[in-house]
## 1
Amino acid sequence: MSASRLETFLARIYVDDVAREQFLADPRGQAMRAGLRSDEIENLVNIDREGLEMFAHSLQHKKAKKLQRGIEGTWTS
Amino acid sequence: MNSDRFGIGWRPRLAAGILANLDRIEIVEVIADDYFYAARQERRALRTLGAQTPVTLHGVSLGLASSVPVDSRRLEHMARLCGEIEPAFWSEHLAFVRGGGIEIGHLAAPPRCEATIEGALANLAYAKQIVGVAPQVENVATLIDPPGSDRDEAAWLSAIVRNSESSLLLDLHNLHANAVNFHFDASEFLTRIPTERISTIHLAGGKWIGREGSRRLLDDHLHDVPDPVYELLEDVAFRAPQPLTVILERDGKFPSIESLLDQLDRARHAVARGRERLLQREEAA
């Protein structure tokens, strides 16, 4: 159950700028409020911040490109 | 050893070039999800392509590597398309792509832990049940060291492949990118995974992003295949004697078809070098 909560939490901080900002300001508090296990919380406190920002930025870029091309919903791997 | 085959990912912009060069392209990989809701005419065109050359179907949105059960409707779409196209095989990524109703919009590396291994194994078994055949599973590139992980990628990937019926689609640019971004040796990685289970190889390119001193390699499929990826391909051909299918992926900034065919030829040469080394070792033994 907690594993799926962690996936939901990650999905949110990957795509939601506000959620990511709040998380980076208080990772422990945000992870605790999401009901994650103590080991998951510790792991998130030590998150790869640079990687998180890069990944979030790349997702925004991909979304913008798809919208620009008018092919929202078309995937590439 | 002479059953290796080399192909290209089907993209509309490449269609004419691919169709004009089927004597140099032995298999074509199609993004399955683009056809889940396609009009009958488009699906007929795909069947026509399949009549001319072997086709493989590549999924990108199932999110199999998740503790959450895979969406059965998406699997039914895949099953229907496989039934219509009769691909050589189908494949999907070991990624999670959504959580709690939030669509990430791309492939995300899941936490590398027991829960996602168990989830992936359950999802792969269910996928086989619905589609009729287990998918080949692909390693993904990641810009972020996956949070919630308690083991490295080689251990996590091996656990899934060894305990499932799926063979491995090893993306060598994904491996290369993860190796340079997270400072491990890609060749050593190959010694830790079940190379006898590799069926297919993906080749692609990427670009460096980020500030000087903390750059990371982004797998964007918009650039040519870099040299280290060909070196890894040779290494795989040396370690994995079984027939390999090698697919070149390019999603944009398309060069000429000749340039892509040249990259495919470089892949053929890399595999030939690996096979030659293997032969020499066997003769010396």
Note: The longest strand of chain B covers residues 102-108.
## 2
Amino acid sequence: MMNLLRLFSGRDASAPVARERLQILLAHERGLRGQPDLLGLLRAEILTAVSRHVTLDPDKVIVRMDRGKHVSTLEVDIEVPNGFERSLAAAG
Amino acid sequence: MAKVLVVTSGKGGVGKTTSTAALGAALAQMGEKVVVVDFDVGLRNLDLVLGAERRVVFDLINVVQGVAKLSQALIRDKRLENLWLLPASQTRDKDALTEEGVGSIIAELRTRFDWILCDSPAGIERGATLAMRYADEAVIVTNPEVSSVRDSDRIIGMLDSKTEKAEKGRRVEKHVLITRYDAARASRGEMISIEDILEILATPLLGIIPESQDVLRASNVGSPVTLNNAASAPARAYTDATRRLMGETVPMMVPTERKGLMDRLLGRRAA
């Protein structure tokens, strides 16, 4: 019955769009539930690893996840102070 | 055997308090001994919807902290002798509620009532988790709208993991109650369909409450909609939902536009 109504309601019906968006979103959110905060964990470990070699401002480490339909990307943005190369050379 | 039922949603403004009052009153009208407990500390409203706002002396937190006895805080409804209210505190910090404190109150209420209806605050924080903590059953109030369905899904996840029952490996019996259903918008395909909501949430349906002026009118005068206008479409839908809670099999009525027209013809101003 609802499908029939939908047929007659024309192309402007937004309900099917709502359903599709929800299905995709919830499939993803359910997968995350109960897991530790992955991004927070990654950020903390990256910070620890890099800090062993370079002095970093912890607020300048940004880890971001972007989700695409097929592929997701993990973006890690670390701002390092100038003179970073010199400290690397000294360490090497 | 007493049943603890949490009325929850995640999202605010979907009709938790209205539904708690309506279901509580309908259960009491069927002869069950009912207490409705307001867990919305700091933003209590169940007293107002039930028309008991001027009779609140002690509240849930007073009882948790031992300032008042449970019997001093319970307010008996003036119309239904089987219906009682345990109000929330309007002034205190919500952190005053503890898991142990709530647990002992619920245990005491279980000995005195057939049904303990917990009106959850919105959100997923402490107040909401405490309201569901000791639930045997849950009514997830959902509007046919994407953000409400998403939040309901989140709450269902919490009911399956953060309740005492879930932690003991048992299940909280869950029901979806769809409120503010607008038949006109549904027929135009502008509202996510009930089938889609149920498929997404994978939870059985308790009832469909139509969007209606009767709900607002009932809260204006401080009376549960099932009492204020028992013949109205939302009252009948709540009564049917209540009978389903009691284990009866009641055919599901999907509100239609024609019903609205019938109501108008009969002189009622429906939705």
Note: Chain B has 14 helices and eight strands.
